Protein 1
Amino acid sequence: MIGTASARNHAFVQAMGAEPVAYGEGLAERVRALAPGGVSAVADFVGGQLEATLAVLAPGGRNVSVADPSVARHGGHWIWVRPDGAKLAELAAVVDRGALTVEVAETFPLDATDRAFTASRTGHVRGKLVIVP
Ligand SMILES: NC(=O)c1ccc[n+]([C@@H]2O[C@H](COP(=O)([O-])OP(=O)(O)OC[C@H]3O[C@@H](n4cnc5c(N)ncnc54)[C@H](OP(=O)(O)O)[C@@H]3O)[C@@H](O)[C@H]2O)c1
């Protein structure tokens, strides 16, 4: 498992069991150095990564993006999360079992939603912003 992040988050990525690499210029080369035969799957949570994705995927590899619909024209899947109470309950049970942890970056009261939005717009939040009613 290889995970992209800025340097300040590399130890965090490593603690989750992945090999951290910096994103930006030269990303595909850095991934190729770690996986010379290519990687079997790419999950893009940022967008604008199609070129790097295709450069690192092994033949027959799979790719998915939550932020770039154009991947669908290049053999990938674009997915969109939909509100689903039943699925959320399943996830909550997995959290209760301790098999899934959720990093909470910051918690806001409802009347400070504007501050949560501003934090989100930085593009560098590590984990979830929680709004408490
Ligand atoms: N399809 C869906 O259902 C769905 C759901 C939620 C969000 N989204 C979309 O997903 C995207 C991400 O949203 P988000 O709120 O989860 O995260 P975000 O706050 O935009 O990004 C958070 C993470 O992305 C890393 N990052 C920033 N620029 C990067 C780059 N160029 N390459 C690789 N990593 C980079 C940051 O790492 P560092 O802090 O270490 O730089 C940070 O950990 C948005 O476009 C959003 O609209 C889609």
Note: Strands lie at 2-4, 19-21, 39-44, 57-65, 77-78, 104-109, 128-132.
Protein 2
Amino acid sequence: MGKFITVHSFKGGTGKSFLAVNLATLYAMQGKKVALLDLDFRAPTLHVVFEPMFLKCWINNVLDGSINVKECMEDCSDRIDNKGKLFVSFADFSTEAIREMVSKGKKWEIEALQRLLQMRRDLLDNLNFDIVLADTSPGIQYLAINAVVAADVALVVSTLDDSDVTGTVRMIQELYDVFEKKTAIIVNKAIGYGTMNDGEKTKILNGLHEKYKETVIGVLPCFCEVGAMKRASVFVLKEPKHPFTKMIEKIATKLDAL
Ligand SMILES: Nc1ncnc2c1ncn2[C@@H]1O[C@H](COP(=O)(O)OP(=O)(O)O)[C@@H](O)[C@H]1O
Ligand SMILES: [Mg+2]
């Protein structure tokens, strides 16, 4: 039975899309059948990375109920030299589509949740994906929280910025815990973490909320190479031996075990 992992955060720019792309690629390279979904309808990103060529529809159409997810996936396995199976579903990045998605009402959101749950069943039970990774918008609006509700594991990405940490902890307590969601946290862009000694690293983690600390499955330092890299290249593919790739591999293993 496969696993649906939603990558979410309280604030924007924490590295969700970057991590979703790299984790999906890593899993596919390990031979898994992976689906990567762009559920960030406010700021779609995956089309910039994978440059789809044969698109017939968007994941927006799946949530509207007009089409099955199977029709809206592009086989991107060739981008990873066919090392495994990687299918990607893209969000409509036109200005009209983004405006439309952010102005949807509660009734649509509830229907969209049902369709998201159906999509989950289609991907895991009918199409036998091993891993589904969903990239989402930051924050607590319904669309993002729906994706968390549909997930087996909610992977939350936070920086060490104190407003991010405080918001993340509140979001987990007030929302995730209500759904009894299995939660894992990645602290990303931890400036200076790479060169800290163990004592300093422990001090940073001890400074976090007790609850927050327990579920941290990785702390990733801020790497200039990552920030400077063009979107269209996938870090773990381009830099397979880089220490950052090794850290993402460890995170993938921990997520697997959850
Ligand atoms: N550990 C890191 N070190 C340096 N830059 C990073 C790191 N993680 C992500 N980035 C960069 O930060 C920017 C924002 O990341 P992104 O994945 O788009 O965030 P989000 O999807 O959460 O808004 C991107 O340019 C990305 O390459
Ligand atoms: Mg993003």
Note: The chain has twelve helices and eight strands.
Protein 3
Amino acid sequence: MKRPEKSIIIIGAGIAGLSAGCYGRMNGYRTHIFEMHHRPGGLCTSWQNRGYTIDGCLHWLVGSSPASNFYRIWQELGAVQGRRMIYHEEFMRIEGRDGKSFIFYTDLDRLEQHMKDLAPGDRDVIEDFSRGLRIFAKYDMPIDKPPELYSLLDLLKLLSTRLPLMRAFMKWKNVSLADFAARFRDPFLRETFPLFWDVPDFSMAFMLMNLAWLHNRSAGYPIGGSLEFSKAIERRYLDLGGEIRYRAPVQKILVENGRATGVRLADDSEHRADYVISAADGHSTIFDMLEGKYVSEKIRTCYEKNPTFQPLVQVALGIARPFDETPPLAAGTSFPLEQPVVLAEKEHRRLPLHIYNFDDTLAPPGKTIVKVMFESDYQYWKKLGESPEHYRAEKERLADTVVALLDRRFPGLAAQVEMRDVATPLTYERYTGNWKGSYEGWLPTTKALFMNMSKTLPGLGSFYMAGQWVEPGGGVPTAAMSGRNVIQIICRKDKKRFVTTVP
Ligand SMILES: Cc1cc2nc3c(=O)[nH]c(=O)nc-3n(C[C@H](O)[C@H](O)[C@H](O)COP(=O)(O)OP(=O)(O)OC[C@H]3O[C@@H](n4cnc5c(N)ncnc54)[C@H](O)[C@@H]3O)c2cc1C
């Protein structure tokens, strides 16, 4: 006789929650997702304003190439079928004052040559960096099972087949971007190299990993933007027979005899299941929905001390101009300002600029979305948000300043602006519930990279966490993998063979 389906409640329809839902259905569980927003995707989203689509997430999608292991996961989730990917020659351009630019080419031979041309005296440092990059580029991500299910034999196999990668990883993991940049004798490289990710303690191992994916053409941009991508996974989930309820914020995770048994929603309704997975924000899951009752010292210290990705301000402009003279760049240009400018209380000497001239689905013909994004202090916005009038005024002021600065770089631009849209850390917090508006969870600093975050909590059975708050470094592929991994762990617990299908 067929065993009755066990049930799983999933909190959150971001990429991790949708992924857990899809794999739960593939493995014969009844799944119900409760999502507080009215659409899927969480941070992986886009929105419309005056005929323009503002993309809120994907600049690059790791696993976009059929040659990478991860592509299989995107196929299983129905996310890549029929989707056009583009691969940029240049990831990012960092302009200097004298017309010189440091370009992060995605091809590593070209990047190496470019760095040597810029700084011939730094040959040895550049070659060391390129050697590291080549090693990282040789290895793909293993996807077959989560680290929690590795046997000693699995670990030994992994180590023996990846020894050079492990060595390179150990060599680079504790080197910060800032420390490495300080090795360059050339002042221009020393200044521009760390702007790859403007976090001084960012681990070089993470940078090399990212550049390796770009080099392997395994981190393309999916045409159509982030919400279309998330909606494809939502469709796959519904086709698999999953249930989802929007505008359904979970307030409390119900616990009986040390086991999670269900959830209580904001409308006071209660829902029960055999398992509960929270794919929502980590802080509110642990400290609000579970009232801080299932926390080890390690978890508490982590939430008190470890740095998170600072939240963002995003000023998006819809501009009646094609920008076809500007090279397409995955992660944009950073250009120096004539005079420093104060944006949201912080002085900026450069402006990071994203021109979406490579995706014509986001703007009407001949027009373009342009974005300026920068990190900003959460507390500043939190305080400002107490006065809706001042909050709105600050957003207007920011948009005015950005338009004026861009008009200097692209004369005539101010008159071509048709749409202005400002998102702040409070926007991210309101729509996704992420702690302090963080856009990617834990920062992969030299200390935090691959810190081991457990997907379970001490003293609480039948409960799992998935998503960026249990996967330091965050990102869309990691979220998808995290949802998949949790279902693998549940299958193992139920002595079921984990299976997947591709639509
Ligand atoms: C500007 C920006 C650029 C980015 N660029 C990239 C990129 O190029 N490549 C990349 O890989 N990643 C990128 N990321 C990061 C990536 O978007 C995230 O790491 C990833 O989407 C996180 O997915 P998640 O499912 O773990 O969490 P989330 O997306 O935060 O999903 C959590 C879901 O839970 C819901 N929720 C929260 N609380 C509750 C509750 N109480 N009840 C019910 N539902 C709840 C939320 O509404 C949300 O839908 C970017 C992010 C941003 C903001």
Note: The first strand starts at residue 7 and ends at 11.
Protein 4
Amino acid sequence: MQHIVWITGASSGIGAALVAEYARQGWHVIATARRIDALQSVAEKTGRAENIHLLPADLGDLENISTLSLQAWNIQGHLDMVILNAGVGQWGTVTETQTEVEDQLFDLNYHSPVRTIKAILPKMEKQGFGRIVAIGSIAGQFGQRKLAAYSASKAALTIYLESLKEECHDSPVRIQLVSPGSARTQIMESSMLPDGSRLNKTGKAQENGLDPAILAKRIFQFTQTRRFHAVMTGSEGLALPLHYFLPGLFYRMLRLRYARK
Ligand SMILES: NC(=O)c1ccc[n+]([C@@H]2O[C@H](COP(=O)([O-])OP(=O)(O)OC[C@H]3O[C@@H](n4cnc5c(N)ncnc54)[C@H](OP(=O)(O)O)[C@@H]3O)[C@@H](O)[C@H]2O)c1
């Protein structure tokens, strides 16, 4: 029987690369994001569009998540894996960022995956197998200026997943978390400014970041293991140990980086 994975945030960046990788590996993919044209183009580029089912939706619409999850489940009557990847960035200080913008960010980055888990996990437990994989970020492991809500949403997701992993210790469902470093995607361009408008420009971290196709291969391999958490970084590989062991030095270096901008 063909494996089936539901991937959110599938219209660009890491999600689009995951669609291509899982399709290449022979999986049937259900692809969700808001932009149907972009989803269609992602599916066509894989050369395996017949194995990709488009399920466009706004995941910020939290009331619709349980219905949407049921729709995804019913496409083939089961799911082997869900990859909770959809997310949005931000760029703005705490005082200038409107509360509504932070709420919108949390709806997508935290509440939407949590509601999806609540809808899918009982079904996977009943069928006796399944994997739930969330895409966090290394930004969820430390605080940074102008990224407070984004980092907090990823930190919340990280701890939620870690708690869930413990709850599922004796469950047939495996919980996994990937924390990527910077990747070459549209995350910065589509980041929300303090008034909710888009940043519309990219940054050095993204330009020099990991190739999403390589990241997708690493994520595919990781999801074949029994491990809970994988940090997947490029040049910023030392950030986490430095932050953990020498936080003072870590933040001095971050401030120098900001001063150079
Ligand atoms: N790129 C990085 O440096 C980096 C690093 C660490 C973690 N991450 C995480 O990786 C994940 C993927 O990000 P990316 O870098 O690939 O960014 P991206 O290229 O901007 O992709 C974001 C995806 O999320 C979808 N999305 C946004 N709002 C949505 C909504 N309301 N409903 C449904 N889908 C929505 C977008 O599709 P539509 O616009 O079509 O809806 C798009 O497919 C995110 O969770 C991000 O936080 C990224």
Note: The chain has a mean pLDDT of 96.
